[in-house]
Description:
Strand order of the largest sheet: 1-2-14-12-13-11-10-15-16-9-6-5
Number of strands: 17
Order of helices and strands: EEHEEHHHHEEEEEHEHHHEHEEEHEEE
Shape: globular
Largest sheet: 12 strands, mixed
Number of helices: 11
Amino acid sequence: MAVVAQSSRGWVLDACSLIDQGYSRCARRTHDAKSHVRCRFKRQCFQILKSHGSVNARAAAVDAGNTELLQKTNKPPKRRKRKHSELNQGEIDAQVFHEKIRSVISEGTTSLLDSARSVGYLTGATDAVEEPLPLEECGLAALCEMAKELPLVDEEEQEACVQSLVDEDGCTSQVDLFSRVTENSTDQATVVSLMGGEYVVPAHTAFLLSDFTRMQPLVNYGRKFDLIVMDPPWENKSVKRSRRYSSLPSSQLKKLPINLLASANCLVVTWVTNRPSHLRCVRDELYPHWGVEVVAEWYWVKVTTSGQFVFPLDSQHKKPYEVLVLGRYRPSADPSMSSSYVPVEDSRLIVSVPSALHSQKPSLSEILRRYVGPEGSCLELFARSLQPGWTSWGNEVLKFQHTSYFTLSAADDPANISGDEEPQLL
């Protein structure tokens, strides 16, 4: 059950089950054979068993209303001495923003956790998987850099900007991932060999592996999307220190061709870090520049398998939530354009156990369905994974599709792989 609980305050999601429902039917293809397999995302990636920092476990328990854990941690916490220093303007802005939304986060999370626990979820009763996490080394971005040396597809070839993942002979050797949109139009997920690695590609999905300078094939794809979700590579000090990925300044983000990709009234959803400057950038710079009207602000609340906040709610360093800014693309001033769409409620919470893998966000497909309609066409920008029924773009778009993140096993009955259900599409 991917959506475990929901109310007027928001939703509790089982993020791992959300991934798995796209792989209820899966086949592995090689050059000369096809075999059916069971495919599940590795459970240990979502085993966040305790709040970060044992010193703050009691505070996290109080914030999340976990009385059982509170009894276990009812010891005076050790406090580290902190040198007194004046807050800079960014820290002051962050504190003001936190105080503004604190009650929404605290009260809403407590209510949603109660609903989830009533059905036996987030109680801490989980079968721990002892296997280590998959290595997160990914060379896709480097390959995109190398692909820049290849000539651009000329105008005469732009009509052929789409290709099938698997040809009639079941081969993928001639697939050009960097200058053409690749489609898996079959009714089942497919395990294929690409660029010397093995990847799982969901059913009815399309993707383009490229960086910011090579987006033209996505534009030439010719689709207008009713939902665009993006997780931009925001500039910050931790990214520079870790060198996990290259960041983009707002001046570059403004160049995203939203007007060429969005249908009228397209719902645009942007993940934002907790820096107020990034939130202001989205609301005051990017959305107005793209012609997007802000309609709501949601919060992703990260909890452990016991329902604790992963960081204490009032932590000065890291908060247990992230922000999503939702807006509607308005290419004209005609007010009648928005009349047929379900209004997006403000200040909703998405509560889930986060992935231990860096920058892997929960799928929003289930909860956004009602705001774009069941036949809505969906796009994810700066994607690091694929979703059934979606188009995805990014220079690491296949990262979390590598088979090292999945548990694959032989399926005895190809007609009943994890049930008889078709992959659910948005």
